Amino acid sequence: MTVTALIVAAGTGERVGGVVPKQYRMLGAKPVLAHAVDALAAHPAINSVRVVIGTGQEQLARAALGDRAVGDLLFGGATRAQSVENGLAAIAGNAVLVHDAARPFCPPAVVDRLLSALEFHDGAAPVLAAGDTLARAGATLGEAVDRHGLVRVQTPQAARLAALRQAFAAWSGPAPTDETSVLRAAGMTVAAVAGSTMLDKITTRDDFDRAEMWLAGQMVPRTGSGFDVHAFAGDGPLMLGGIAIPHDRGLAGHSDADVVLHALTDALLGAAGLGDIGTHFPPSDRQWKGVASALFLAHAAALVRAEGAIIDAVDCTIIAEEPKIGPHRAAMREKIAAIAGLDIAQVSVKATTTEGLGFTGRREGIAAQAIVNVRMGPAR
Ligand code: CTP
Ligand code: MG
C-alpha cells in the first residue's frame, strides 16, 4: 500500500485571530504546520506528505516548511472540503491520510490503527468519547443532549484514495466538515479507531496555550560549555563580545579572534551536540580568514534552532587583566543578544582577572568561558 498524507492548511484561522493564520504561527521552536508535517513524515508507513495551502499563502507556507520534502504546494478552496478535493485530485498512491494542519501532534500509534483498519474498511477515523455533558448552545442553555454513545471525530482520516475521490464526486449538499461524512453518505464503511487528546485541533487561543504547555513538557534541558584563548598581538582595536574596544593591542587568530564569541559559539554547538567551531569553520579554510566572528555565532544559533531547540540563557566569563570590561559590558550584551536572536535579559557577560597569575595574569592573552542553556524539542 502506498500512503500519501494530505495536510490541509488553506484556512485563515478566523477563530484564533492574529496577523498570521494559525497554521503558520510558531508553536515552541517551529510553526504549527511544520509540527504536523514532521509528525506524519516520521511515520515509516507514510510514503509522502503533501500540503494544501490558500492562495496568497505561498510565502508563509515556504517559510514555515523550510527544507521539508512536501513536493509542490497544492492550492485549496473556500471551504475545507474544497481544499481536500483539490488535494485529492493532485496526489497519487492507493491510500490517503487527510489531516488538518491545525493538529500539530500526531501519535504514530494512531496512524498504525488507521492503516490497519483500512484493510477491512473504505475509511477510518480516530475518535474520542464525548466526556463532558452536552447541551444545545444558546444565551440560556438549551436542551440537554445525551452524550451516551457520542464521539468526537478527529483527523488524520484514512481512506482508500479511489473510494474517497468517488465519494466526494457523489456528494451533494453543504460542504462537509470531514471525510467520514462524505464516505458514509456514499454508503461506504468507516472504522472508528481510538483517537488521542494530542490530536485535538487548535481552534481557539486557549488551544494554543494548551499546545504550548504540552510541548513545554516535552522539552529536555541541555547545557553546553565553551572555552577559548587568544594571544595579544599587533595593534588594537580589540574585538571582544562583538564590540571593537579601543586598545593598544589586538588578539591574534584566524577570523577576528573574538575570544568571547568563539567560546559562546562552541557552547551553543555543544548544547545541541553539533560538534565544535572547528568542525563548522575550519581554520585551514581560507574563507574564514579575518571574518567577523558574529557570523560564527549567528550560524551556530541557527543550527541549534534548526534542531528544534529554544535557547534560554547564555553566560560568558572573560578572563583578562586588560582591558577593563565593565565599561563595555552593556554594549557586549546588547550585541550578543542581537547576533544570537535573544533578549538582552538572556545574555550575561562577566569578567575576572587571575590576580596576576598565569598567562592572562602576565597579560599575554585573554581567555573566555561560556555556558549556554537550551531546551531541546522532540527530534524532527
Ligand atoms: N482549511 C483548509 N481550507 C479551508 C478552510 C480550512 O484547508 N478553506 C484547513 C485549515 O487550514 C485547518 C483545517 O482545515 O488546518 C481545519 O479547519 P479549521 O480549524 O476550521 O481552520 P480555519 O478554517 O483556518 O479556522 P477558522 O474556522 O477559525 O477560520
Ligand atoms: Mg474553518
What does this structure look like?
There is one protein chain. This protein has helices at 32-41, 58-65, 80-90, 108-117, 161-170, 179-185, 205-218, 259-271, 277-280, 294-306, 329-340, 358-361; strands at 3-9, 26-27, 30-31, 48-53, 74-75, 95-100, 123-129, 134-135, 144-145, 151-153, 157-160, 190-194, 220-233, 238-240, 243-245, 250-251, 309-319, 347-352, 365-376. The protein has 380 residues and is an alpha/beta fold. It folds into 2 domains: 3-218, Spore Coat Polysaccharide Biosynthesis Protein SpsA, Chain A; 220-376, 2-C-methyl-D-erythritol 2,4-cyclodiphosphate synthase (60s Ribosomal Protein L30, Chain: A, 2-Layer Sandwich), CATH 3.30.1330.50. Helix 5 crosses helix 6 (179-185) and helix 8 (259-271) runs parallel beside helix 10. It starts with a strand and ends with a strand. The structure holds cytidine-5'-triphosphate and magnesium ion. Cytidine-5'-triphosphate (CTP) is lined by residues 8-15, 21, 23, 52, 76-80, 83, 100-102, 201, 203. Cytidine-5'-triphosphate binds at residues 8-15, 21, 23, 52, 76-80, 83, 100-102, 201, 203.
Q: List segments where confidence is low: pLDDT < 50 over at least 5 consecutive residues.
A: none
Based on CA inertia axes, which overall geometry fits?
A: elongated
* Strand-pairing-aware structural class: alpha/beta
How many structural domains are formed by the residues?
Answer: 2
CATH hierarchy: architecture of the largest domain:
Alpha-Beta Complex
Task: Provide a count of the helices.
Answer: 12
The CATH class of the largest domain turns out to be: Alpha Beta
Gyration radius from CA atoms, angstroms: 27 Å
Biggest β-sheet: count, sense, barrel? 8 strands, mixed
Question: CATH H level of the largest domain: which superfamily?
Answer: Spore Coat Polysaccharide Biosynthesis Protein SpsA, Chain A
Question: How many extended strands?
Answer: 19
Beta-strand level of the residues, as a percent range? 25-35%
Separation of the first and last Cα atoms? 25 Å
At the third CATH level, what is the topology name of the largest domain?
Answer: Spore Coat Polysaccharide Biosynthesis Protein SpsA, Chain A
